[in-house]
């Protein structure tokens, strides 16, 4: 067991935001891809991020668990600044589950191993316990009967649900979803969205990049509209979809609705 310094301040649990971005800037060369982003996400909150391609949505998600560095500003998760590297980073990163458009499962490991190996490695769980938890999670996302197969033997919708189970196995404090259904055949989208709605209802803190308006209306507490690296608009889903304020948002919704 490691005894890393305890992350976090001693702010009262419920009041402090779980994820906080303060004046975050990120460039790729000359491209100012995140422009002074300020965003607080409360415990249990579900935030849907939408916006045109290239607006910085993926970079925002990737910055939150430090798959991308930022140039300046600060990002905290449960009060702790993500360290740059090393074991402390792995530990804190495990607090932030991420599900990508491409499912990114380990191709040569069984479904069960895909879900149970992370907790053994990073959380130092006992293998038997990790397997038990993995089976519970596979049950919950509806693919327990596939546990001994390889990822390629599953449909895209099933693989994405395994990816969600894998992220949940780390007992994350927040889950990030970056266009989790955009690589799926239409008939598989709902099985993944339903799993996500279930998580939202159970109180998971979630940041979801998606253009699935049905999901946003059902599950989001807040919609954030990004364009050109900026948060242009924030509203409840109801407000945003029925009465977008900015020209950019109106234009965008006109194209996708
Ligand atoms: P979105 O997810 O909203 O489509 P991204 O965050 O992926 O947007 O990208 C924002 C901008 O940054 C785009 O113009 C994209 O081409 C650029 N970009 C993303 N990743 C990189 C990278 N690793 N190197 C250079 N440019 C990048
Ligand atoms: Mg993206």
TrEMBL record:
Instruction: Give every ABC transporter domain span.
Output: 19-253
The answer to keyword Ubl conjugation applying to this record is: no
| One Gene Ontology molecular-function label | ATP hydrolysis activity
Claim: Nucleotide-binding is one of the keywords in the record: yes
Subcellular location, record wording: Cell membrane
**Principal subcellular localisation of the protein:** membrane
Q: Which UniProt keywords apply?
A: Amino-acid transport, ATP-binding, Cell membrane, Membrane, Nucleotide-binding, Transport
**Reactions accelerated catalytically:** a polar amino acid(out) + ATP + H2O = a polar amino acid(in) + ADP + phosphate + H(+)
Q: How does it sit in the membrane?
A: Peripheral membrane protein
One cellular component term (GO) for this entry is: plasma membrane
Q: What are its E.C. numbers? A: 7.4.2.1
Q: Name one Pfam family in it.
A: ABC_tran
Q: Which family does it belong to?
A: Belongs to the ABC transporter superfamily.
Q: What is this protein called?
A: ABC-type polar-amino-acid transporter
Species, as recorded: Arthrobacter zhangbolii
Q: What is the lineage of its organism?
A: Bacteria, Bacillati, Actinomycetota, Actinomycetes, Micrococcales
